[in-house]
Design goal:
heterodimer; A: mainly alpha; MetI-like fold; two-stranded antiparallel sheet; 70% helix; disordered N terminus; B: 359 residues; alpha+beta; Rossmann fold; 5-stranded mixed beta barrel; globular; cell membrane (chain A); membrane (chain A); transport (chain A)
Chain lengths: 293, 359
């Protein structure tokens, strides 16, 4: 019998030999690339073309207009609303998911996960109508509880945030439950065995392991709220300044005629905001997930 | 590092109607490595988790050096534990994993990293501190888990089947490593396993558990040679069950009269429990017994011998394999020594369960 040394850290054998043949496997990505060009590339070209043209000449006036006055207010309003929904939705969604994951009642877990799957896809005019009928000025609950006399209104920034959270929290539950399920009980026990209390376990192990998922969830929720239009249009019309509502107004000419290219500039602003969010998210995500590589 | 004395006193634990521990009493001496051995559901892991503080016994007490720690939270116990697998924190580097307990105790970074490096050298992996757990093999991960368990210099080391997820070769190497470390540190160690070979080869003493109770605790040689009960005899090692006739404390088996050891059943029809190495097989053309299968194992060969309706296993020296080929008529005798007997069951039970390496 050969007695082995405990040290086995030989470097991986260096790959040698011939250069690999050129593969044609990239052809498989052609449908995806065609889709990306069609759905992202073409609209982007149209947006850029429209944004930087005014009365047939090359101009940055549309961008300038989109970043001042009511347009700027709307853009900032959308960012504010989306950030609030993203952070609150991620927090509440994570707590709800943790409660479900640690629950002893299997049925409760199944019920919450199924409901989350459905509610996370609930949006647009049906969602707005559901809330208007329930908590609008003449809503069933508003009337039953006499909320209107207490100054309640659904048709403002906070009301809209509430409605957005209605689909954002379930979305976060759907996103974070698999990650919470992936936290092995042995990690918590090993932490305890090393003297850690519950907070120390979460601080040093639980939260860092979840962070890539949580960051992804926040970005997803931000994007969902930032791009939402129909729910807000049906609920608040023009009373809450949002960039998507301004784009619709400018395109349709309901308020001002000839502002179609400002609408395109606002769309470009949205792309830039999304880009900025990704510019913050990606390094954070990379840093938090370095142990996965 | 000095080992502590650990006492389990009358531990009882029920899990919604299932009894995991049924009054377990066991004392582990300072510096001793004891293996808790038994089939699935015998309570060995529950007992270990009671010592670690992850389970609270319904009754009974856990004492370490005379102090009752039964209600002490898991994070305040002086015990390091190695889990079955996948217990390293995936987000921390190997160095940070090993130093985790020191970090929780707010030991300065330089000091805890030095200690982590010291432990990595102890387990023979000094150069992997910057790697992450998923970059290591299973054996390396368990070595690191061992280093982490030792980082706080606990007086008790708890090993919960730490080798069961590893392949056979690594398992053998690592159990030697663990034993070497345990002996050099003198730490009291409780090792849970369902692998009898692991238990017998590593432990100072082996405690065999059955249905939450202690069946026998003894050093490996005694456990193997002088099993206290039929259960231990059958669970530890391979055992033939050969029909015999009991008369007082003597049993007649295969035409031989042998003294009986241990409990004597009330019935005269009994089964005699005999190890394969105490079955003597000699070529004899006039005998009715015949070798069915021969399995060469190097230093020994295991034979499956048929005698009438009975089949039994016999271990013979490897160099006898040629003259004891399948089909050879043989005379079968037993070594003259006291034997264990159990109440007779049906004839089928007399046939030992075939082992995977018997072809």
């Amino acid at each position: 019998m050969t007695v082995q040394s405990p040290v086995h850290t030989a470097p991986a054998a260096a790959g040698g030999g011939s250069r690999p043949k050129k593969s044609k496997s990239w052809l498989a990505t052609v449908p995806l690339l065609a889709f990306v060009v069609l759905v992202f590339g073409v609209p982007l070209v149209i947006i850029l073309g429209g944004t930087f043209s005014r009365e047939g000449t090359l101009s940055a006036a549309n961008v300038t207009d989109s970043l001042q006055g009511a347009y700027l207010t709307a853009l900032l309003g959308s960012v504010k609303l989306s950030a609030l929904v993203a952070v609150v939705g991620a927090l509440l969604g994570t707590f709800l998911a943790q409660a479900v994951v640690t629950s002893r009642f299997r049925l409760l877990r199944e019920a919450v996960l199924t409901a989350s799957g459905v509610l996370s896809n609930f949006g647009g005019i049906p969602l707005a109508f559901a809330w208007i009928a329930t908590l609008g000025n003449s809503g069933v609950v508003t009337s039953a509880l006499g909320l209107d006399s207490a100054g309640w209104s659904l048709y403002n920034f906070w009301g809209l945030a509430l409605v957005y959270l209605y689909f954002s929290i379930p979305l976060m539950v759907v996103v974070v439950v698999p990650a919470l399920d992936g936290l092995r009980p042995q990690w918590r026990e090993a932490a305890q065995n090393n003297g850690a209390n519950t907070w120390q376990y979460w601080r040093h192990v639980g939260i860092p392991v979840l962070t890539p998922t949580l960051l992804g969830g926040v970005v997803l929720l931000f994007g969902g709220a930032f791009a939402a239009y129909a729910t807000a249009a049906a609920m608040v019309g023009g009373t809450v300044p949002l960039v998507t509502l301004q784009i619709a107004n400018a395109l349709s000419g309901n308020v001002l005629i000839g502002h179609e290219n400002v609408a395109l500039a606002l769309s470009l602003d949205m792309i830039v905001v999304a880009g900025l969010v990704m510019a913050v998210y990606l390094p954070l995500q990379r840093r938090s997930a370095r142990w996965l590589r | 590092m000095n080992g502590a004395k650990v006492e389990l006193r009358g531990l009882r634990r029920n899990f919604s109607g299932t009894t995991a521990l049924d009054g377990l009493d066991l004392t582990i001496e300072p510096g001793e490595l004891i293996a808790l051995l038994g089939p699935s559901g015998c309570g060995k892991t529950t007992a270990l988790r009671c010592v670690a503080g992850f389970e609270q016994p319904d009754e009974g007490a856990v004492l370490v050096d005379g102090s009752d720690i039964t209600r002490v939270p898991a994070n305040r116990r002086d015990a390091g534990m190695v889990f079955q697998s996948y217990s390293l924190f995936p987000n921390l580097s190997i160095r940070e994993n090993v130093a985790f307990g020191l970090r929780v105790r707010k030991v300065a970074a330089a000091k805890r990293h030095a200690r982590a490096q010291e432990l990595l050298e102890l387990i023979g992996l000094p150069q992997i501190g910057e790697r992450y757990p998923h970059q290591l093999s299973g054996g390396q991960q368990q070595r690191v888990a061992l280093a982490r368990a030792l980082a706080l210099e606990p007086r008790v080391l708890l090993l919960d089947e730490p080798l069961s997820a590893l392949d056979a070769k690594v398992r053998v190497t690592l159990r030697e490593e663990i034993r070497r470390l345990q002996l050099s540190l003198g730490i009291t160690t409780i090792f849970v396993t369902h692998d009898q070979e692991e238990a017998l080869s590593m432990a100072d003493r082996v405690a065999v558990l059955r249905a939450g109770r202690l069946e026998q605790v003894a050093d490996p040689a005694t456990l193997y040679d002088r099993p206290a009960t039929a259960f231990v005899a059958e669970f530890v090692g391979t055992m033939n069950r050969i029909p015999g006739k009991l008369s007082g404390r003597t049993v007649t088996v295969l035409g031989q009269d042998l003294p009986v050891e241990g409990d004597v059943p009330a019935t005269s029809d009994v089964e005699v429990l005999v190890r394969p190495e105490t079955v003597i097989v000699t070529p004899d053309p006039s005998s009715e017994a015949m070798i069915l299968v021969s399995s060469f194992r190097g230093s020994t060969s295991r034979l499956r011998v048929q005698l009438g309706d009975l089949e039994m296993l016999a271990d013979v020296p490897g160099h006898d394999t040629v003259r004891l080929a399948p089909g050879t008529r043989v005379r079968v005798e037993l070594v003259e020594r006291p034997v264990l007997v159990s109440a007779s069951s049906d004839v089928a039970a007399a046939v030992p369960v075939p082992e995977h390496d018997v072809v």
